[in-house]
Amino acid sequence: xxxxxxxxxxxxxxxxVIRTAKRLGVRAxxxxxxxxxxxxxxxxxxxxxxxxxxxxxASYRNTEAILAVAKATGxxxxxxxxxxxxxxxxxxxxxxxxxxxxxxxxxxxITAMGDKINARNLMAAAGVPVAPGTTDPAATVxxxxxxxxxxxxxxxxxxxxxxxxxxxxxxxxxxxLRTEYDKVRAFAERMFGDGSVLIERYFPxxxxxxxxxxxxxxxxxVALGERECSVQRRNQKLLEESPSPxxxxxxxxxxxxxxxRAGEAVGYRxxxxxxxxxxxxxxxxxxxxxxxxxxxxxxxxxxxxxxxxVEEQLRVAAGLPPTFDPDALAPRGHAIELRINAEDPxxxxxxxxxxxxxxxxxxxxxxxxxxxxAGTTVTPFYDSLMAKLIVxxxxxxxxxxxxxxxxxxFEIAGPKCNLPFFAELLENxxxxxxxxxxxxxxxxx
Length: 445
Fold this sequence. Notes:
- The chain is of the alpha+beta class.
- It contains 15 helices and 20 strands.
- It has helices spanning 11-23, 40-44, 63-73, 89-97, 107-114, 116-125, 141-151, 174-192, 249-265, 298-305, 309-317, 396-408, 419-425, 429-433, 440-444, and strands spanning 4-7, 27-33, 47-52, 77-79, 101-102, 155-159, 168-171, 197-201, 207-215, 221-233, 236-242, 270-279, 284-291, 334-341, 353-354, 357-359, 366-370, 377-378, 385-393, 411-413.
- The protein has an eight-stranded antiparallel sheet with strand order 13-12-9-10-11-14-19-17. A five-stranded parallel sheet has the order 3-2-1-4-5. The chain has a three-stranded antiparallel sheet with strand order 7-6-8.
- Helix 4 runs antiparallel to helix 5 and helix 7 packs across helix 8 (174-192).
- The longest helix has 19 residues, at 174-192.
């Protein structure tokens, strides 16, 4: 096993990785910005080093500063968490070039799946279903219009280098397409340094379902079930559950087979997620993208499979076999994760601030992965995620009931908080039925 691990991230995911590292006897090293000096992950690490001011470019995305800390502290490996540098192929290459172990997939796999158009083409060649769309970037708005005419309106206009629900627009006709194309292209150039645009069929009523994969040290790729991620605002997830209430045993087999095929197509190692769109009307699913890192929602998979995915990541990176038998995977029960954000529960606008009270729910089947405590401050410099509330029970109905009680027992005061939204969602008839899609939050508002 790896002996020392630098966690190149912050907040709840840094704290989460540190927890597993310490359980395994791995020395955990944290890096933190000046704005995060008082957060729990800094205190809980075996060693913590400041790497700069609040601006992520000067701290959590500062490759030179992170590697300098790794060298100074004698770190053996680097875990990137999610966000920041986690899907940066150049960073992965640089980590390994400096003699460190990268806890993630190869830089080549990150590169292959980082461009949505390239990823679509790779998946199509591997026999994974992809939605109708362009096989090359739409270099001009005229090319986008020509593609949309062939595909059929409405279409999704997407930044080829985008991710996390950013850099997307929907066009129902040519006039809107002209506007959205310019908007997405400008956003992509500004945010990702790449203005390439993809045109893809848009499905008005669709579910967002993903499959957790793990590329093992021996070269095998295994699928650890699916997660339902259709409760979203601005194309970003708010609640995830596993298993999906929309997935039949036959569909599950097809989804998991396609996800394994996707991982094998790029020689995938370590943890990753194959995201798909599922059309309940036709029963078809289509490859959306692959996230070449650990997902925010990984705890629901941990609950239903009884695993610690961070431990499995470390074992793969160290060249060790998994803790489980890949030929005897058996999910049990139902898990739900709620993303507790510092945001207005009605309009979902960020609302940072000092936390004056923080009391987490506990008990059987209740887990809280948090980045904050009372007396700390949610600053405007980073994502608004404060904590993840995860519940587990024997079935979906019992998990929903447990989630209701946990939400009611979670006290946060100071910053704005979306707990009232979840209290409303968990009583919503459409959600309770399990027959919902990515438009559920819009219909609630």
